[in-house]
């Protein structure tokens, strides 16, 4: 019993082997890109612990959970105030904002008192 495409058999085997090798390389490349992604994001964002995030990404890929945590860690910017250092620019900004709000409240209170006195005279 002969098959219709029996003469194309060796060529189809080579084509399927090439396809499987290309597919395997594409999967391997996707795995490498996913493992390196948290470290790349952390470096791009100038994260203080970019190397640690990168290591967590590589070791976390087989487990999955640690890789997700590495992605979250790569997107979080560590705060200086948590490490005991003070951010004088941030504090100065807050002090300025509070001063402006206090001035605004005083003006509103004075306007309210002025309106009350005008209503009494009318």
Outline the secondary-structure elements.
Blueprint: H1 9-44, H2 50-60, H3 65-75, H4 88-121
Helix pairs in contact: 1-2, 1-3, 2-3
Task: Give a quick rundown of the structure.
Keywords: Coiled coil, Membrane, Transmembrane, Transmembrane helix. It contains 4 helices and no strands.
Mind explaining what this structure looks like?
With 122 residues, this protein is an all-alpha fold. It folds into 2 domains: 1-78, no CATH class; 81-122. The protein contains 4 helices and no strands. It has helices at 9-44, 50-60, 65-75, 88-121. α1 (9-44) crosses α3 and α2 runs antiparallel to α3 (65-75). It is elongated, with a radius of gyration of 33 Å. It starts with 8 loop residues before the first helix and ends with a helix. The model is unreliable at 80-85 (pLDDT under 50). Residues 91-118 form a coiled coil. InterPro entries: UCP028770. It comes from Roseiconus lacunae. This is DUF3302 domain-containing protein.
- Which spans have pLDDT < 50 for at least 5 consecutive residues? 80-85
Q: For the residues shown, what is the average pLDDT? A: 84
| Count of helix runs | 4
Proportion of residues in β-strands: under 5%
Shape: elongated
Biggest β-sheet strands, sense, barrel: none
**Helix and strand element order:** HHHH
User: Count of DSSP E strands?
Assistant: 0
Main structural class: mainly alpha
The N- and C-terminal alpha carbons lie at a distance of 115 Å
Please estimate the helix content.
over 70%
Rg (C-alpha, Å): 33 Å
The domain tally reads 2
Keywords: Coiled coil, Membrane, Transmembrane, Transmembrane helix
Coiled coil: 91-118
Transmembrane segments: 12-37, 49-76
Pfam families: DUF3302
């Amino acid at each position: 019993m002969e098959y219709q495409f029996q003469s194309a058999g060796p060529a189809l085997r080579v084509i399927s082997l090439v396809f499987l090798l290309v597919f395997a390389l594409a999967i391997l490349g996707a795995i490498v890109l996913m493992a390196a992604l948290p470290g790349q994001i952390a470096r791009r964002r100038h994260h203080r612990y970019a190397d640690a995030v990168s290591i967590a990404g590589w070791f976390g890929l087989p487990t999955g959970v640690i890789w997700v945590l590495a992605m979250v860690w790569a997107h979080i910017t560590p705060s200086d105030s948590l490490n005991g250092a003070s951010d004088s620019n941030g504090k100065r900004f807050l002090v300025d904002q509070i001063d402006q709000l206090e001035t605004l409240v005083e003006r509103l209170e004075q306007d309210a008192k002025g309106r009350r006195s005008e209503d009494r005279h009318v």
